[in-house]
TrEMBL record:
Coiled-coil boundaries: none
Family membership noted in the UniProt record: Belongs to the CTL (choline transporter-like) family.
Keywords: Glycoprotein, Membrane, Transmembrane, Transmembrane helix
Location in or out of the cell: Cell membrane; Membrane
GO CC terms: plasma membrane
Record-annotated membrane-spanning stretches: 29-50, 200-221, 228-250, 278-301, 322-349, 369-389, 401-423, 443-467, 545-566, 582-605
Cleavable signal peptide: none
Statement: the UniProt record of this protein carries the keyword Membrane: yes
Chief localisation class: membrane
Topology of this chain in the membrane: Multi-pass membrane protein
Designated name of the protein: Choline transporter-like protein
Its job: Choline transporter.
Protein source organism: Magallana gigas (Pacific oyster)
Amino acid sequence: YFCCIILGKPLTYDKNFKGPIKDRSCTDIICCLLFLIFIVGLVVVAFFAFKYGDPRLLVYPVNSNNEICGYGNQLGKPYLLFFDLVACGRMGMGVFVTGCPTPQICVASCPTENNVIIAAASTKSDLKYCKDGFDADSSSKSIANMLKDEDCATYWFKSQPCKISSDSIDIPSLILITVYGTFLKAKEYGEKIIEDVVTAWWMILIGLILAMVFALIWIIIMRWIAGFMVWFTILAFISLFGFSTGWTLYQYYQLKDTDQSFHIQFSVIQMTMSKPKLFLAFGIISGIILLIAVLILLFLCSRIRIAVSLIKEGSRAVGTMMFTLICPIFPFFLQIVVIGFWLTVAVYPSSSVYYLKASIRTKKCTLNQILFVTILFHNLLLINCFVLYSQIFNLFMMFWLVNFVVALGQMTLAGAFASYYWAFEKPKDIPAFPILSSLWRCFRYHLGSLAFGALIIAIVQMIRLLLEYVDAKLKGKENPVAKFFVKCLKCCFWCLEKFLKFLNKNAYILIAAHGKNFCTSAKNAFMLIMRNIVRVVVIDKVTDFLLLISKLVVVAFAAASSYFFFDGRIEFLASFTPSLNFYVVPIVLVTLGSYVIASCFFSVYEMAVDTLFLCFLEDLERNDGSAEKPYFMSKDLRKILGKKNVISPSDKKEF
């Protein structure tokens, strides 16, 4: 009974199932509506952020009229002058909440002299720094009233915006100078790098295209070399450890009657080790690893053959539906758009604080002091709450949308590859436009399921981010118990996220094939995997190994080719080699770009293998090879399993 609950009952034959179901209904509608509501909320947050925010407020100074110095009406006045810095000091830490209460104006240059205005001993011509629109010479006010009403600055000191006097350098100033010098050097290098990119951009583009073509060719030939790569690696592994075991034990028997030893010193610790015992230890370890590898090979040989056959079948599926290779490009760019939108919206609310603070300060002249302070702090509290919660909401939506885009790409590919597997006679029975059909089914019926799966991952990622924040706060604190529990929670939620991503991907495969809701599909996928757990582990590890090797081959090909070209080592192309400041720049860009391309291409390949594998497991449970229930798997897989169809694809018409 317990096994029945955990593993579930094997699937039964369904005469109506001949591939991805076309007549299906909408799934997880409530989650779809919730997703749309949250998107509307994100639009509202973005609207207020764009309306009241300006990223320039975070970089450039702003005067009391909320005008950016150096822009608009203040063009040519890039510096900010405070009338009374003492007023800022009297605010204490409150200056970071409400801002400095003294008038602030934009000026073309900083003061070049020290001066204090004394009403009785000064003339109007001495008032050099006044509010915008206020003309001291034509004003009927007395100098005393001008200073009292803060129409003009009472004093100013000689200052410089960028340079620091050499006779007053302290430790913070020294740090500032060092950082500024580093910045200038980085800027110089950055300009040279950009110059190299502009010079060699078309060569970099050609290198990326060549990497794309090579990755495509590699995927196609995987159907012929996959088996060789797997078995060669296994045999090489066994041979290596077999040689290691034999050689170390031979050395032990040669030296066991001697008293040879050697010394190892780590700092103040010295160790003396016996050579015979060291060889014996390495021999025993190598022998244990060799024994485990041989036992795994003996017991899992047929499953490894199945994994290799499925990988070959995945290559055939990708080769049959070549347009699947361009599918990851669209989710990739959508993820970039989502992340870019998140960054933009994240910057604008932060800058809106400065805008709203300045707007509140303008009410000081029209309200009495007590009412002003009450409204000021009430509004600032609302502002800070709005910014904080909008940033949290924006971050959560970024996680949700990115995972939604990933889920959309996975389900679209799963529907296409499921159509390939459940075609009895390939490629004749594969439906027309399988990718577009699968994409249409995702948008028409399963937006809610996609949002549901993405929501679960997004919640876990937000919890992980919170734990990272708590862990950062605990650094330097003497609370080992709290640190231990936080580390344990971080590990647990990392594992949970990996498991949920694995389960979600398999749930999307079954949703694409059967059209059921997310929870039902996730449950069915989990039970199907648990009933075939050994096969799942073998196919997963073999696929991971082959994809790793494939990525390394593509990246190594692109990196080596770009190195020999930009270093001028290809003689017949030497005339095209550009003169660059750093020839390593295009090499690095081609290498990184080729890795991204390889990851995109082989993610399609991985999805093909995962989809075909789940379909293969379903095929084994639903069908038995009879005329009524023939297998849909390839002839190679039937041969490995010792199964056959009473009716073959070539006899289908007669049947």
